[in-house]
Amino acid sequence: MKTNYLKKYIISSYILVWALIIFVAGTASLVFHAPPVIMWIVRNLIAWSPTYLLLIGWKHFRPDETRTVFVKRCFSGKVKLFPLLCSFVVTFGISILALFIFSVIMGKPMLSYIRLGTTALPLSIFLSLTSGPTGEELGWRGFMREEFNRKYGFLKSSVCQGLVWCFWHTLLWIVDSEFTDWRAVPYVISNIVVITSITILMNIFLERYNNLIYPVLLHFGFNIIYVFLDADIGFFVILTVLYLVITPFAVLVRSRINTKN
Q1: Is residue 191 part of a domain?
Q2: Are 145 and 214 spatial neighbours (Cβ–Cβ below 8 Å)?
Q3: pLDDT tens digit string along 104-124?
Q4: In a domain, 67, yes or no
């Protein structure tokens, strides 16, 4: 019987991240009462778990290829400045647009929903970049994308990847979210829609440019605003609607471009 390496990787990644959250982050927070910046570093280390798992357990997930060949392929595409900037702007811009609409509806300035906090701005940006954006993509958009693409076409493969990535965050929705009342329902729905949509957008860039730097910046463009954001559930509802409009449009544009080519 043929080994399902993708299934092994997905199950292992879930077990690993949940164990790290419970035993490492939980211990740091509840036992040692680590300050916020230390907890941020701990979360970053946990965010790299898909990459640790892939590289350390490589022979269990891709025994017919070397790590070096795989990594080189993931970054083989030429990096172009304008598309690179676009990869950041698309997710960052959607979040800014959602915040603008939310602020208009609430009748408050956009900046009233931004909190710089106690961590220095350069350090905040660095910690945000070295969290999920650089820590997760080799596993998700590197290994997992290739495995799903072998089985399915672009859209189904992207949705499957997005759902795996989305529910990998399940425990964080419980322990690291302020929405613990009725707002948890639209918050979870927003996560499912937005994360799956971002995966589709990432794969559009990867299909064209074949370099993980693009999804890293897409991921970073999405994450960075949430370092400073202090907005209620209405923002996430608006964000969900925007992604439900923009992502199908992006898929349509991709299809037309591919048809012409």
Answers
A1: yes
A2: no
A3: 999 999 999 999 877 888 999
A4: no
